[in-house]
Structure formats: structure tokens, C-alpha cells
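re: that chain from earlier
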Amino acid sequence: MDWYTSIFELIDMRSFSNLWFWIALAVFWSSASHWVIGVPFDMVLRARRVGGQAEQDLETITRVNVNRLLYIARVSGIWLLGLTCFMLSGLAMLGFWYRMEFAQAVLFLMFPMSLVGAMSFATARRIEQESATGELLRKRLARHRFFTQVIGMISIFFTALWGMYQNLTIGVLGG
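^ sequence. v structure.
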């Protein structure tokens, strides 16, 4: 028995039947909805509840992350867009034309996250344009988090549907 066979017997490469994929999917979306454009959402809640220094801290960390995101977009935005489109179309081709289940699983993770990324750039631009502070800033961050959670729920739903379809079609033992 060679090392290649040993590794693939140890690690199940069928993504949708692997418990680790579903754990990673849950952690992925949990983290995405907690970190709103790089700002932990508990800071938004604390700023709303406490105000004062917590509000200033929220405005400062948001300003830093907004400036960082907008700098990235202005300097290399077109290259990131091109690379993202290349990667997503490559994953789609590998996943659905060549029927590679691992590429399908990665696409089901990355495509919705690219939507969240685009939404993050738009939210950052809007916060900068409005010079949002206080209640308006908290509203923008809360709205961004809400739509991230909506995208996450839809993504998890369709990933689960496709995963169940794959597991029923291929079978539990890969036959």
C-alpha cells in the first residue's frame, strides 16, 4: 500500500459526507456574521448599551477598518475582482463540469463569501461618504450584519440541499 492510498483512506475527500466540512461551514458563517467589516459585533452592542468610551472605540476601529478596506479597493480592487472571478469560475468548472466534489464544496463556501466581501466594500464606502458616527454607524454595521446572516442562511440551505443530493446520488460508501 502506498502513502497516497493511506492518506486518502485516512482523510475522507468526499466533502459533503465529511463532518469536518459541516463544522467548517458553521464556523465560517459564524465568524463572518460576528466580524462586520473587521469590527467585532459585540463592540457595536456595547457602544449602543454603554456609550462614551465604548462608542469612541467603535468609531475608531471602524474608521481604521473602513480606511483599510477602501485603500485595498482603490489600490488593487480591479486585480482582486479579476482574481476572484477567475478562482470562482475555475472552481465552478472543476466542480460541475469535471464533477470534483471538493471544488463544489469550496465554491459553496467562497461564492457567497465573495458577495459578503463586495457588500463589505460597499458598506465601507457608504460609511466613509456619510462620515457615519454614533447611531448611523451602528445602524450601518447592524444592517451589514443582518444581510451577511441572510446570505449565510441561504448559502447553508443550498449547500445542505446539494450535499444531501450528492450523498444520496453517490451513496454513503462512495459507490
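The beta strands are 35-36, 39-40.
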